[in-house]
Design goal:
heterodimer; A: 782 residues; mainly beta; Immunoglobulin-like; Maltoporin, Chain A; 22-stranded antiparallel beta barrel; 5-stranded mixed β-sheet; globular; B: 294 residues; 8-stranded mixed barrel; 5-stranded antiparallel β-sheet; 3 helices
């Protein structure tokens, strides 16, 4: 494998020897607030020679010496053209104005809106924050996670389910990065709201299949969320007063154009509002959450920039017990420009997800504290040898500490049980190299290799089990102790990545991609919806890493001067070593859980269609996915393939926004998804006077609950702004679940509790939202 | 514990945020294939021993499952080689009448169950599991309940019993009767496990048995003169798992319901082509005690 790396590097270096060329490089930023313009395009006007700005707004473009016209474009911004006589490497920073705010002297040219045709990226979903803010949302709260669920290939179990599912994958197969630090639970209130404050988010990109080599560690998708850097030109305040929570963000320069900060906070107050309506024990209920984003951005000089960012969010519940959970992340990044051709970013982060559960009654006391701690150091380099290659390479190491928890319980006679579940440690590290190469005017490639390695580490005990009949708990045969940092088990996964684009013409392109990914931690959950109590297990001597291989092919076409963009993609994904459980497994508080685990195969395939209207008064998109997701685990469902609980045959979304006037926007969402596959009992049998339920064919996912569909409406009114005070405000009215559908979150069976007849069974449809949910939110900005 | 926590959390969240709802719906679920159900829970109490054979039935049928009659049912004590034949009562029940001086169940003996009907044959194996002694059974006035939720004040039954120590894990099924009535709803099956994976070996049963065995989930205190009887059955791990999963699957409701799975069985058809069997063969050593509420 070393040979492959060396050959690849040599090949790329050969391309680097270019004569009679010079390089322009610099940053592309917003002229008003100084924010980096991620993905903005820089090109030699009238040619295909060009590049795009990276996640920090940096670009590098090598061009022939002589007089050149440099075109800078970014969707929603006024393009700029600059004439320059190139004789030596030069630094050129550009600041672009949003449309409608342009200065008179700026040359207005066409915007680059055909990036979806030209780029190698496929299976990538992007949404602008401005678009998301127009969409009707549950209780009026703009929700990034719910918004991306309107895109092809992205689904969710339903309201009240944390996270999202991409191409049939489990929620733990999504790498959610907030300023490069991983987030383990992306939801507040059991999935009702996302943890991402829209006022603090600058950019988001969901990669579903064609994941470049710099990303790794998950097998289904990467959701890369970049927070705002903070306005480095003037004070900016954003806020909103909503139905159940409010938010406020402040960003400002500390030293103009040099040091800036952002602080954004949200806090819910539904518990305070609901208290007068609650009775009995629920009167003491406390249910709220908060989150806080903060960021400091320091442009030390033209070659060095440092970013410090943090997220702290927590949900609290108490009604005679205490339960709270949340993420905390801290990230430090250092951008360094070695030369006009070499850019680096060093990232260090520390992330913690934990939950705490406690009861304290007269008779019983119980405390449970569990957490995952992640620390990482990452070096990413971007090398721009010439105008046809962009080479990215780097390395990352992540140290995981899994603390399943220490439980203290005390009964009324002060009989105490203290159970400590041993900590587990893992070290994941990877090297990667990736090149984006333009082979010809019409054909470009992106190819690379990520090689990930993993050591399951001591200090701790490793458990060894004997194989037994599948679907029975494996008996423990040996327990072996390991010292601090001693390797218990080592794994490695070579992860080749390939993407290609054949641009037929300005309007049409065909793309294909292949990606292999490894994942060294998996969530443990056997419920329909993930819960905050679910925990992650690392790869161990008993649990092999999850791997996936995915192939995608797509056709992309734009219509009417890029007013409409459309795509059709097909994909096939296979997975190995997905976790499952024996039928009577004890998932919680079980030191010997690994003996109850099974690992099996998965496969998912589908067709994704997407049409989006980008311009005009009337904008929006329609997405449709036809797909199938299956699993096969020896010991389960008669060893046959069965539908995954994340399988959705049909998944369609319509999102429409219409600017009635300059100030008034009407929006609507319609969502339709096939029902969740479920395993239902079809018979019962009698033992000891009980009638136990039974699945006569012992097949998993033998039924499907009714389809999910929902219509939402939203109206956003922009008040006339006060030119003196620069105060801008909007009022957003939303109606969620307009036609009051009670979508089934799950269907379960029970003996009728109102009957004394043990034979009287009933089926119950459980709906998390059983009514229309109206909301009103006032947003302001100055 | 987990179920309770999740239900409470879900309730708290959804009650406060929205009006989540549960609607009774009609489901068209036909039983795909019939199974033979074997209810063979025997014990060493000096009462007639019964094995019940029925057919499984559609989940929503509302009828008593049909009895399987005409079978030949024998119990073989593999330790002392004695074979016992159960008499077919033509109602699905197969009875062995205990004579005054006869003992058929011995702790730690191994047993085989043989069932033959038509051309089908089923076998099951188990051993008689030891129980423990009841050190104390008494009523106590209390106003405390489960996990901080208020319950009706009154006299509740308390059990003092301790697991038998030793390298073999012990599993127990505790049955509570009030005035001769067994509180039999599946959510109230009381199971205890000790020593499995070296946890809790030799420790006390310290739960408030009455509170967790009442007909309404623990809000039914006793009145003066009420007679409470408590029995502790020694059971095997597979029987414990069968009952535990039975409780879980019978009450697997709400937002965080787990995937439905079938209960394990130790009844095996002797040929793959025979109808499948469900149910359990269990033999228990039993201790019991009765007290009257003062």
């Amino acid at each position: 494998m070393k040979t492959i790396f060396t050959t690849l590097a040599l090949f790329l270096c050969l391309n680097a020897f270019t004569q009679d060329k010079v390089t322009i490089s610099g940053y592309l930023r917003d002229a008003v607030n100084g924010e980096a313009l991620i993905g903005a395009a820089v090109s030699k006007q009238g040619t295909s020679l060009g590049t795009t700005a990276n996640e920090y707004g940096f670009y590098s473009l090598t061009l022939p010496k002589g007089k050149q016209f440099i075109l800078v474009q970014y969707i929603g911004y006024v393009a700029q053209v600059k004439e320059i006589d190139l004789s030596t490497n030069v630094t050129l920073n550009f600041e672009l104005k949003e449309e409608g705010k342009q200065l008179e002297e700026v040359v207005v040219t066409s915007k680059q809106e055909d990036q979806n045709i030209k780029s190698n990226e496929m299976s990538v979903a992007k949404l602008d924050i401005a678009q998301i803010q127009k969409m009707p949302a549950l209780l009026g709260e703009v929700d990034i996670i719910k918004s991306i669920q309107t895109l092809p290939g992205v689904t969710n179990v339903g309201e009240g389910a944390s996270g999202f599912n991409v191409r049939g994958g489990n929620i733990d197969q999504n790498l959610i990065l907030m300023d490069e630090a991983p987030v383990f639970n992306s939801s507040h209130m059991f999935g009702m709201f996302s943890i991402f404050n829209p006022d603090a988010v600058k950019d988001l990109k969901l990669m579903k299949g064609s994941v470049p080599a710099q990303y790794g560690g998950r097998t289904s998708s990467v959701l890369d969320i970049r927070m705002k850097e903070g306005n480095n030109k003037k004070l900016e305040v954003n806020g909103g007063i909503g139905t159940i929570f409010s938010r406020l963000s402040i960003e400002a320069p500390i030293i103009k154009n040099k040091v800036s900060f952002l602080v954004a906070a949200r806090r819910s107050y539904i518990d305070v509002l609901a208290r007068p309506f609650l009775k009995g024990d629920m009167k003491k209920a406390s249910v709220y959450f908060y989150d806080l984003n903060s960021k400091l951005n320091w442009n030390i000089n033209s070659k060095n920039t440092v970013f410090l960012s943090g997220y702290f969010g927590r949900d609290f519940f108490s009604t005679g017990f205490k339960f709270n959970y949340g993420n905390a992340t801290a990230t430090a990044r250092w951008n360094h420009i070695f030369s006009s051709k070499l850019f680096s970013n060093i990232t260090a982060y520390h992330s913690r997800y934990n939950y705490f559960l406690a009861f304290n009654t007269n008779s019983f006391k119980f405390d449970w504290d569990a957490k995952i701690i992640t620390s990482s150091l990452k070096a990413d380099y971007s090398y721009f040898p010439n105008s046809t290659n962009t080479i990215k390479f780097g390395a990352q190491a992540i140290h995981y500490t899994f603390k399943p928890g220490e439980i203290k319980s005390v009964d009324k006679s002060d009989f105490a049980i203290k159970t400590a579940f041993p900590d587990q440690y893992g070290l994941e590290y990877a090297l990667y190299i990736n090149n984006e190469q333009k082979i010809s005017e019409n054909f470009s490639l992106q190819y690379g290799l990520r090689w990930s390695f993993y050591n399951y580490l001591g200090k701790g005990n490793a458990y060894y089990y004997r194989d037994t009949t599948e679907n029975l708990s494996k008996p423990l045969v040996e327990e072996r102790s390991f010292e601090h940092l001693e390797t218990i088990k080592f794994y490695n996964v070579p992860e080749p990545r390939l993407a290609m684009n054949y641009t037929i013409n300005k309007k049409n392109s065909v793309k294909a991609s292949y990606a292999r990914s490894g994942q060294y931690l998996q969530i443990v959950s056997n419920t329909s919806a993930s819960t905050p109590l679910d925990f992650y297990l690392p790869a161990t001597n008993n649990i092999k890493p999850l791997t996936s291989d995915q192939v995608s092919v797509g056709y992309f076409r734009n219509f009417k001067e890029n007013t409409y963009e459309a795509s059709a993609e097909v994909y096939y994904k296979s997975l190995d070593n997905q976790l499952d459980y024996i039928d009577n497994s004890k998932l919680f508080l079980n030191k010997y859980l690994e003996g109850d685990l099974l690992q099996g195969k998965g496969r998912a395939y589908g067709l994704e269609l997407f049409v989006k209207k980008n311009k005009g008064k009337f904008t929006g998109w329609i997405s449709y996915t036809l797909s199938k997701t299956e699993r096969k685990v020896n010991g389960i469902s008669n060893n046959e393939w069965f539908l995954s609980k994340y399988d959705r045959t049909h998944n369609a979304s319509v999102v429409l926004m219409y600017d009635i006037t300059k100030r008034l926007t009407l929006s609507t969402n319609f969502i339709y998804m096939s029902g969740t596959p479920s395993t239902f009992f079809d018979s019962k049998f009698e033992v000891q006077g009980y009638y136990f339920p039974h699945n006569s064919e012992n097949k998993r996912s033998n039924y499907r609950i009714s389809p999910y569909h929902r219509l939402d409406l939203g109206l956003v009114y922009n008040f006339k702004s006060n030119d003196v005070k620069k105060w801008k405000s909007t009022i957003a009215v939303s109606i969620y679940n307009v036609y009051n559908r009670r979508n089934a979150f799950s269907v379960y069976f029970r003996n009728n509790p109102a009957s004394n007849n043990a034979l009287e069974n009933e089926a119950i449809r459980y709906s998390v939202i059983g009514s229309i949910v109206p909301a009103i939110t006032y947003n302001f900005k100055f | 514990m987990k179920t309770f926590v999740l239900k409470t959390l879900a309730l708290a969240t959804t009650l406060i945020l929205f009006s989540s709802c549960e609607d009774r719906i009609q489901m068209d679920l036909d039983e795909k294939s019939k199974s033979v159900s074997v209810d063979a829970f025997l014990n060493n109490m000096r009462v007639d021993q019964k094995i019940r054979l029925t057919y499984s039935d559609s989940y929503f049928s509302g009828k008593t499952p049909a009895a399987l009659i005409g079978a030949s049912v024998t119990l073989i004590d593999l330790t002392n080689k004695r074979t016992i034949t159960f008499e077919d009562k033509n109602d699905g029940n197969y009875i062995f009448k205990i004579q005054n001086t006869d003992t058929i169940i011995y702790t730690d003996h191994n047993y085989e169950l043989n069932i033959k009907y038509q051309s089908y044959e089923y076998k099951a194996f188990t051993s008689c599991k030891r129980t423990t002694t009841i050190d104390g059974l008494f009523f106590k006035y209390t106003d405390i309940g489960n996990i901080g939720l208020s319950v009706e004040a009154g006299n509740r039954l308390f059990l003092v019993a301790k697991d038998v120590t030793g390298p073999i894990p012990d599993f127990y099924w505790v049955k509570v009767y009030k005035n001769g009535k067994f509180y039999g709803r599946s959510e109230n099956i009381q199971l205890e496990e000790f020593g499995y994976n070296n946890e809790r070996d030799g420790q006390y049963f310290w739960e408030d048995k009455w509170a967790t065995s009442g007909p309404d989930g623990g809000v039914d205190p006793c009145k003066t003169g009420d007679v409470a009887r408590l029995e502790i059955y020694g059971i095997s791990r597979e029987v414990h798992d069968f009952l535990k999963l039975g409780v879980q699957m019978s009450n697997n409701t709400g937002m965080f319901a787990t995937t439905s799975v079938n209960l394990p069985t130790n009844i095996f058809p002797q040929d793959k082509s025979y109808p499948k069997a469900v149910g359990m063969f269990s033999i228990s050593d039993v201790s019991f005690k009765e007290v009257v509420c003062p």
